[in-house]
Write a structure and sequence with these properties.
Blueprint lengths: L1 H29 L4 H11 L13 H19 L5 H22 L5 H24 L4 H31 L9
Helix pairs in contact: 1-4, 1-6, 2-3, 5-6
């Protein structure tokens, strides 16, 4: 009886973390669609005028002003390039959908956690290497790296809880499950 109660608690933690992760992926994806509107809001909040050259500002404000000018000018001249960020958004939504399998059958689908961990680790070299190639400021690349660092934490917890659940139910995988 006590073991069954512990199983339910662990399963609740697994499902709660899975839902949290799915919502984070959806939020990250959905916010990739309206980039121009978001950057304009950031400029308003940071008191950045879009009527002056970006190099009028320095630090974070200078970077945001530069990004705003780039996004706005690109969307006016080459709007099809934003289609790339639409696909970025879509990929986040698809990855979130993959976590449904983890929610339903966490032990069988632990591979989804491993896949997520690999993706989180991959964020770091991508941000550091490609960010340098694209002239992204180093401090901004560190912010990008933080998505991998903080993203892996719930996945590590999920891995621990799934392995605990596996022991609690004495799970024995089929040969080619």
């Amino acid at each position: 009886m006590e073991s069954n109660s512990l199983e339910k608690k662990v399963l609740f933690k697994i499902r709660s973390l899975t839902i949290f992760y799915m919502l984070a992926l959806v939020a990250s994806g959905v916010t990739a669609f309206p980039i121009e509107s978001e950057i304009q809001i950031a400029c308003q909040v940071l008191d950045i005028s879009l009527d002056v050259p970006p190099d009028t500002y320095d630090g974070l404000r200078g970077w945001i002003a530069t990004v705003a000018a780039g996004v706005i000018n690109t969307n006016q001249t080459y709007p099809f390039l934003s289609y790339g960020t639409d696909w970025l958004a879509f990929s986040h939504l698809v990855i979130a959908a993959a976590f449904i399998g983890l929610y339903k059958k966490p032990i069988r689908n632990i591979w989804i956690v491993h896949f997520g961990m690999i993706a989180c680790i991959g964020v770091i070299p991508l941000a550091l290497i490609c960010g340098a190639i694209r002239d992204i400021p180093f401090w901004w690349r560190l912010i990008d790296c933080s998505f991998g660092f903080f993203g892996i934490i719930p996945l590590i917890l999920l891995h621990i809880y799934i392995k605990l659940l596996e022991k609690l139910v004495r799970y024995v995988p089929a040969k080619y499950e």
